[in-house]
Design goal:
The protein is of the alpha+beta class and about 130 residues long. It has 5 helices and 4 strands.
Length: about 130
């Protein structure tokens, strides 16, 4: 599985546009991506801050999401001031998700997927390992 938490800061005045785009992304992701496990957006406490929790069956499903036609069809740069993508690991017994893993790309992965794999590298923290069996 591949799970990440995105910390998002929006340009002032772009909140309405951002939320409209995220509603469409949410709808299409859940309709068109069978390997999407979680894909949700939340407003933060500070103005213009948002969070997104994304979880996919595996790294390849995440990369397919990132390179989907509808994902590439929006001007995110005009809305997003700062984005921090943090790979997270679920705590067994406190989350229904399974551990985040890097996983290998299939040999059939196209050039866009391979480029995205270099851009969005899954980071599995060494300290997670000792806590996974608990």
């Amino acid at each position: 599985m591949a799970t990440l938490l995105c910390h998002i800061e929006i340009h002032p005045g772009k909140e309405e546009a951002f939320e409209a785009v995220m509603k469409e992304m949410y709808r299409r992701t859940h309709v068109e991506e069978p390997d999407c496990v979680r894909y949700e957006y939340y407003r933060g406490a500070r103005p213009g801050t948002y969070y997104s929790l994304l979880s996919f069956a595996d790294r390849y499903a995440f990369l397919q999401h990132q390179t989907s036609d509808y994902h590439e069809g929006f001007d995110f740069a005009a809305m997003i001031r700062h984005l921090d993508m943090e790979w997270v690991d679920p705590v067994a017994g406190a989350s229904p998700l399974i551990p985040t893993e890097v996983g290998e790309l299939p040999h059939s992965a196209n050039a866009a997927i391979r480029t995205a794999a270099e851009t969005y590298q899954v980071v599995v923290q060494a300290w997670w390992q000792q806590h996974r069996s608990r």
